[in-house]
């Protein structure tokens, strides 16, 4: 059995954002085509100042790959105490035809990439065709990744940005303008930024103040990224009342996504969720139907996105002779 | 982050049975000392002629190691179709202080070794001090492993062996006699073999006929290895009625071990289980109290056994400069 080992730098060189967007789109379609098994994840929570380590398993029947992602986060003393980042990730790929471990790759880049790509996939399916203005509420790494991905699939004319932290905000402006040549307008308030949006992207840690319902103009597409566990929240649940709500997984979003909040407050019922993004991509449910709709994409993240993205990286590595083979047994 | 890679041959050279017995004993003690977290395992079942792949997670607080074992089994076409065994295993060790992946080792030998060792640990705690005759009901690989382990901790005078398959049985006799110099008496019937036992080891696939209650003489210690899932069975549940029942994990054994059968038939109640082997090893509960008792050790196997065994192998590798370091990121 030969196992391919891929380092972080190799992973970086082996895949571009366009391919990640394709892989995530494939993941969503597969999820709604009975091609996916994703058991509940398992993990260990460690006492502070450590965080948690989680194991997420996904099986994609069409490509016969089983992926296991081990990811840690919240080990705040790591850089000083152990000389490693406060979160790390490794992805293990198994050939589902034999059970063999075919690849071990560093997974630290994949979460950011596939989450960025998920926003872009939703923009293709749900944003107005004439959308040009993007608003970033909070401006950390994932906000940049969203821009990187959306910039691959449409022309962004200007970005309105808001962040509680002025340093982060101005660094975001400098970086985005130099990297993509898209003008970034620093908003005086979150309200001002939101009011400008054709596409509104929220990537907050989800514990700050919310985006309020009456700031959101008709026709806006909202990409709600930050909320992936109970207790986090980014949006006034009133926004959901008359919006078209599309999620990655109804089971996950109703349980721990942004959608949990309006459900919990009885602002919407489960039946008011329009559907899963895979259903829209497969043409089973309509995407945006008018320029006046407010559309919301609630993303909690799924193991199958790691699976298809890591599989693409693995295929590219094999095709380009990148990586190191290791034989665990003869 | 540097990750140590260990091949099967290196694993084989890095640990002896005595150390595995020590590691398993440590695992049992740890399990009953609030030092262990073992979430439910997750897995994927594949359609025939493929089998399943399981992921078992264990955290040992005292040594701050998190282990994840990926193991596959039942891929019956593997040798011909893919040139790999029908079951494979890999163990991943994470440093719980940082979340870093510190070791990836082939795990194919560890299940056999630690399961063999578990029988020996139970013999130390529960068999009569004057026990000399061991009976093997079925004579496959795990039956040999049990002998290898028990032979480390006591003097076996003779082995009585029975197997439905005469070829397997005679090969077992030849191998055991040449390897350990212990005479193996081929029994004419299972009954005849069982009646001879001071220590009775059952390692059947658990779907054949059972060891009957009136064959088991007083004072016998039974090591019940084969039953680790619902549907398997090796022993007439009547054997449990007046026996001292010791298990690796009450939760697991009551759910899917040999102990499930007498519980299900109301031959015993849960309170009739004497305790977990760790409690006996820690001196919290007595082991054998008289030469007349029939003792049963029901073992379903626990992730923490993989954890302590693999940790010992990892420590030995570091101490002896064995293995290959791979740096997944700088």
TrEMBL record, chains A, B:
<dbReference type="GO" id="GO:0005737">
    <property type="term" value="C:cytoplasm"/>
</dbReference>
<keyword id="KW-0520">NAD</keyword>
<dbReference type="InterPro" id="IPR036291">
    <property type="entry name" value="NAD(P)-bd_dom_sf"/>
</dbReference>
<dbReference type="GO" id="GO:0019752">
    <property type="term" value="P:carboxylic acid metabolic process"/>
</dbReference>
<dbReference type="InterPro" id="IPR003462">
    <property type="entry name" value="ODC_Mu_crystall"/>
</dbReference>
<comment type="similarity">
    <text>Belongs to the ornithine cyclodeaminase/mu-crystallin family.</text>
</comment>
<dbReference type="Pfam" id="PF02423">
    <property type="entry name" value="OCD_Mu_crystall"/>
</dbReference>
<protein>
    <submittedName>
        <fullName>Ornithine cyclodeaminase</fullName>
    </submittedName>
</protein>
<dbReference type="InterPro" id="IPR023401">
    <property type="entry name" value="ODC_N"/>
</dbReference>
<dbReference type="GO" id="GO:0016491">
    <property type="term" value="F:oxidoreductase activity"/>
</dbReference>
């Amino acid at each position: 059995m030969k196992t391919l080992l891929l380092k972080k730098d190799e992973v970086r060189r082996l895949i571009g954002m366009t391919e990640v967007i394709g892989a995530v789109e494939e993941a969503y379609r597969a999820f709604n085509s009975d091609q996916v098994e994703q058991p509940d994840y398992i993990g260990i929570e460690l006492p502070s100042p450590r965080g948690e380590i989680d194991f997420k398993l996904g099986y994609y029947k069409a490509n016969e790959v089983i992926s296991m992602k081990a990811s840690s986060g919240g080990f705040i003393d790591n850089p000083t105490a152990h000389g490693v980042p406060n979160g790390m990730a490794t992805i293990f790929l198994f050939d589902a035809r034999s059970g063999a471990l075919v690849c071990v790759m560093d997974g630290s880049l994949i979460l950011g990439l596939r989450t960025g790509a998920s926003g872009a996939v939703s923009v293709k399916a749900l944003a107005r065709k004439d959308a040009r203005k993007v608003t970033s509420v909070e401006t950390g790494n994932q906000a940049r990744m969203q821009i990187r991905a959306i910039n691959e699939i449409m022309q962004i004319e200007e970005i309105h940005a808001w962040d509680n932290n002025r340093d982060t905000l101005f660094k975001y402006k400098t970086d985005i303008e130099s990297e993509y040549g898209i003008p970034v307008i620093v908003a005086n308030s979150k309200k001002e930024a939101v009011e400008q949006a054709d596409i509104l992207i929220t990537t907050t840690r989800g514990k700050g103040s919310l985006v309020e319902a009456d700031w959101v103009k008709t026709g806006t597409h909202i990409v709600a990224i930050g909320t992936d566990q109970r207790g986090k929240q980014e949006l006034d649940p009133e926004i959901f009342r008359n919006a078209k709500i599309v999620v990655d997984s109804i089971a996950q979003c109703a349980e721990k996504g942004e959608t949990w909040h309006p459900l919990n407050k009885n602002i919407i019922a489960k039946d008011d969720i329009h559907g899963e993004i895979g259903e829209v991509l497969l043409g089973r449910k309509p995407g945006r139907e008018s320029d006046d709709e407010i559309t919301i994409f609630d993303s909690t993240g799924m193991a199958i996105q790691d699976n298809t993205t890591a599989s693409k990286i693995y295929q590219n590595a094999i095709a380009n002779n990148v990586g190191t083979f290791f034989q665990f047994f003869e």
